[in-house]
Amino acid sequence: IGCLTGIEDAENDEMFQTALKFAVVQHNNGTNDTVLYQVVKVVSAEVQVVAGFKHIMTVILGRTNCEKEAPADNCGIHKEPGFARHHRCKFEVWSRSWLNDTQLISDKCDSIERATE
User: Fold this and answer.
1) Contact 95/55 with Cβ under 8 angstroms?
2) Residue 32 lies in a domain
3) InterPro entries attached here (predicted)?
């Protein structure tokens, strides 16, 4: 209890994927951009047992061609210069399922060059 533990298979970890999707939705809702961002790559994934679970993740987000208000189906990551923006983000999501409560407690992103992915 309390120690950070790496998540070996983040792609197939249901709790992690739920926390990641929540973080990305909250991030998209908080940006001034008119389009959505999607996960390009999970850089690191950890979990900490607290009063619930705290998922700590570092991901690369890519700017898509989907408008925020439109359905998010079949969104492609922009590749054209000027539109292709990538961010390296560290999210912390705290979830307490027995209270039906999930919170994004940290959302820190920096722009990166695509070559550094």
Assistant:
1) yes
2) yes
3) Cystatin_dom, Cystatin_sf, Prot_inh_cystat_CS
Query: Mind listing the pLDDT tens digit for each residue in 62-98?
Result: 999 888 887 777 888 877 766 778 999 999 999 999 9
Domain of 82, in residue numbers: 7-111
Structural domain count, the chain: 1
In a domain, 50, yes or no: yes
Q: What is the pTM of this model?
A: 0.88
Amino acid (one-letter) located at 76: G
Residues in CB range of 28: below 8 A, 6 or more apart: 36, 37, 68
Within a domain: 70: yes
The closest of 75, 44, 73, 48 to 57, measured between CA atoms, is: 44
Please report, for residues 26, 35, 57, the alpha-carbon distance to residue 29 in angstroms, rounded to integers and kept in the order given.
5, 10, 18
Render pLDDT for 77-86 as a digit per residue (tens, 0 to 9). Answer: 877 766 778 9
